[in-house]
Design a protein that fits this description.
Largest sheet: none
Shape: globular
Helix content: 55-70%
Oligomer: single chain
């Protein structure tokens, strides 16, 4: 939801992915998605503007979706975190597949974490390796900036969709514990 602009199709897909039985803690995200009238051009335009205002610009971003902005002293893009994240991905043998997406973008980092989670279940013989990688990535990267990013996002967002996305993102990053694989609302 961070890498893909909200369109009629993407919103419908997100609804379908959450399904009738959303993940624990995702109920308010599901309700926010269900409340959007996909036949209303004005609502779709409003949601797209909210996405653009929060994450793209043209004005000063209230919640830049880049780790380097949150972790560099001068809040600049493409600083140490950018390079460190890219190196972490290389250690696992992957790279960001789009020249338009920075490695330290919230969407790229969460996607990478999902790859590690998939390894926990898809490759049980390598579970300790994937647990270690997930713990290391969360500690070195996501937990260092996502709580502040999500707080900024929740405060700046005008729509229930992006407020709910901020809350579930913060909960997922701060509440993950790999042994056993659980998510909780607290730390």
């Amino acid at each position: 939801m961070y890498l893909c602009a909200p369109t009629r199709g993407s919103l419908a897909n997100w609804r379908q992915l959450l399904g009738d039985d959303p993940l624990a803690g995702a109920e308010d995200l599901r309700r926010a998605l269900d409340a959007i009238d996909l036949d209303s051009e004005q609502e779709l335009e409003d949601i797209l503007w909210e996405y653009t205002r929060l994450f793209i610009g043209p004005h000063r971003l209230p919640c830049p979706p880049l780790e380097s902005v949150y972790t560099s002293p001068k809040r600049l893009m493409m600083q140490e975190a950018h390079d460190e994240v890219r190196e972490f991905y290389c250690r696992v043998g992957i790279e960001v597949g789009s020249a338009n997406v920075m490695p330290d973008h919230i969407g790229a980092e969460l996607n990478f974490l999902s790859i590690l989670f998939a390894g926990l279940t898809d490759k049980p013989e390598e579970r300790p390796r994937y647990e270690k990688l997930a713990d290391e990535f969360l500690a070195a990267h996501l937990r260092n900036w996502v709580p502040r990013f999500a707080g900024d996002m929740e405060q700046a967002a005008g729509s229930p969709l992006y407020k709910a996305l901020a809350r579930i993102t913060r909960a997922a990053v701060t509440g993950y514990a790999p042994s056993p694989l659980i998510f909780s609302a607290g730390e």
